[in-house]
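ugh ok so i messed up the first submission bc i forgot one of the chains. this is the corrected input, ALL of the components this time, i swear. 490 residues overall. if the numbers dont match what u have on ur side tell me asap before i send this to the collaborators (the ones from the other lab, u know who)
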Amino acid sequence: MLLQVDGLRKTFGRRVAVDGIGFALDVGEIVGFLGPNGAGKTTTMRMIAGYLEPDEGVAKVFNIDVAQDRRRAQERVGYLPEGAPLYGEMTPWSFLRFVAETRGMSREAARHAVRRAAQDARLGDTIDRPIETLSKGYRRRVGLAAALLHDPMLLILDEPTDGLDPNQRHAVRDLIKRLGEERGLIISTHSLEEVEAVCTRAIVIDQGRIVADKTPAALKEEHGSLERAFAALTRGEERV
Amino acid sequence: MKKRPGLASLGAVYRRELLAYVTTPTAYVFVAVFLFSIGLFTFQIGGFFETRRADLTPFFAFHPWIFMVFLPAVSMRLWAEESRSGAIELLMTLPAPTWSLVLGKFLAAWTIAGAALVMTVPLWATVNALGSPDNAAIFTAYLASLLMAGAYIAIGSVMSSITQAQIVAFVLAVLVSFLLTALGLPLVLDFFSGFVSGGIGEGIARFSILHHFDAAQRGVVEFRSVFYFVSLIALCLGFTALAVDARRGG
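and heres the new structure output, hopefully the right one now
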């Protein structure tokens, strides 16, 4: 099993962000996290990536408990944080080198990994331009390349296509599908169409809990369409 | 072939941080302001020429006061900027031990301070042209000044790790640096002696940066002063690591 999550819970002050989330993920699966803003998608992803520690529950990557043995688990995960924060003054090349070397790769291995990840993420000739001058689409691709550097089996991508134009979205989706063939992926998205296009499984989260965990086709069949499924399953902030 | 993970990430963070300093104008501005003010203080207020002695005492005497403003400006971005931009999430999801990130950033800022100090060497050359100073003493004072600079940067590192706003980090670091420096001033000691016995007042003074730099700037190396600065740096970096790690708690 690539990833095993059990009873994850996280509170910030009095607000319960994640309230007992559990699921498992295997190679070949592309799981889409769906849910309104503030449902707990990002917090869940952060706990799996080892950025936040859960108050309760465990996340295990290749049977390694992320909270107990954080660095060993993180070696096996590629993570794209929400909004893909980067260092604007660096070029993609120097930024990716930095990530590779921080991951403990030798200079030679880092060079090799950067070349491969840049190719996978289709960075093209932007590799030598300062990141702050790149378009949103290219910045997202740099973030993706950083997540791919060490060729992880498990990828966690928080809103990988958010803010991209249709062409860029299409390119990233193709990449995700290709990566999902021999890895496990979790992506979060607000686009129901994207879930239908790339995900093998949809996990709908509302108010910190999983309210549905099915294939997109099964959700559609049950509710007529994914829009209706989303509206029926989640309450969101507006309707509380 | 993998290197030791901690050392590899320390090196990577150090190089990135140093690159960030030299590719943005801020470091150059700070170093220029530092050189300008140290010159101003040494010649105008310190009376470098009026002392008619070939030494650098008027120069070193102002280091604590200039460092306490200059170095918080260098260290303020270390962690605050990472939190503001969100890049800290990227950093903390890499399999690197926290100490290696803290130390890498600290060493990069310290290198900038060291570079600023190196640029004052023409002054040292001038003194040698004018007379025959005790060069061993001056060299010792330079080393002590560098060590003291490390302490101010370590204080700045803690303050930068507890806020997202660089300016808040700067103000807090100046404040704490000022308190730690001025504890040794007669002015402050007199204030304390008003309500504590002389022995305690003197005890407080022993914890001041000024007290420990005093002998060193005349070229006298005291083990306890070296120990004081090294412990201050270690303590502050320890606090920085705790503050950074505390983020995982949410």
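quick check: The mean pLDDT of chain B is 88. that seems consistent at least. The two ends of chain B are 35 Å apart (CA to CA).
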